[in-house]
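Lecture 7 notes: from sequence to structure.
We start with the chain below.
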Amino acid sequence: MEKNEVIKLIKEDVCKDLHIHTVFSDGVLTPEQVVDRWMAEGKKTIAITDHDGIDGSIVAVEYAKDKDINVIPGIEFDSANELGRHMHILGYGMDYYDDAMQSKLKQMLAWRKERNDSILAELRRQGIDITDEEIYAVNEGRYVGKPTFGRILVQRGMFKDLADAFNNLLSASAGFKAIKKQTLHSKEVVETVHAAGGIVVLAHPMEQMKTGESWEEFEPRLIKLLDTFVEYGVDGIECWHPSASEENSEYLAKYADDHGLLKTWGSDFHFDGLNRIYTRG
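Predicted C-alpha cells for the same chain:
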C-alpha cells in the first residue's frame, strides 16, 4: 500500500480501529473473523497489528479485498531504548517482503524461540510439563509466546484467567523474571519500517506510566519519551487507546498537532473481556 494512501486512511474521518491482534500473535480471533466482526460493527478502516509478525495482516488484507472495509497492512514491534523497555511501535503500510524487514522479523522469531525454550525449562523446573499438543491446541501453533503458556495453565485449572497466571507465576517468580525478552532498539525499528516504505506510530505512550506514579511525576518522563521518538523520526502517536483517559488523549493529540504528527486510535483488541473502549473512533 502506498504511503500517501495509508496517510489518507489514517486521517480520514470515518469509524476505524488501527490496533488489533489475532491468533497470529496473542489474540483469539482469526484475521477473517476480525474483518467480518469489525465490518459488522461499522468500521470502515482497520489494521491488524500482531506482535513482531505480519502473517495475520497478510491474511486480513487478502480476505478483505472484495469487502466494504479497508485493511491497512500493520505490525506492532516491541523495542527498547535508553529510556526503558517495552517501547511498542506500530508500523503501517510497509512492504512485507523488504529484505531488511524480513531479516528483522526472522531475528525476532529466533529470539522468541530461545525465550520460549527458557520458559518451558523453568516451568519444568517448577514441576509443570507442557506438551507440544497443548501448545498447538492454543492457536494451531501460529504464535507461541508467554501468553500461550498462560492460557494452557488456565485451561488446566491452575489459574482463573490469563492475568492471574501472569500475576502469580509467569511474571511473579524469580525464575521467570530472570528470562528477559530480547528486542530491537527503538530507533532501529523506526528506521526499518521507514526503509520498507511504512508509517511509524508510537503505540500507547500512557502505558509507560508506572503503578502509583502521579501525573506530576510522569509528565516529564512522557515528554522525554515523546521528544525522543520525534528525534527518531516517528510519524505519529497513538493518542486514543484504552490506557489513556480522555484528558490523556487530548494531551497526546495536542503534542501531535504541535509537532506535525499523525494521530491514531485503536482498541488494542486481543480478546473479549479486555477494555476495548476508547474515546475516539
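Points to note: Residues 105-177 form a domain with the DNA polymerase; domain 1 fold (CATH 1.10.150). DSSP finds eleven helices and nine strands in the chain.
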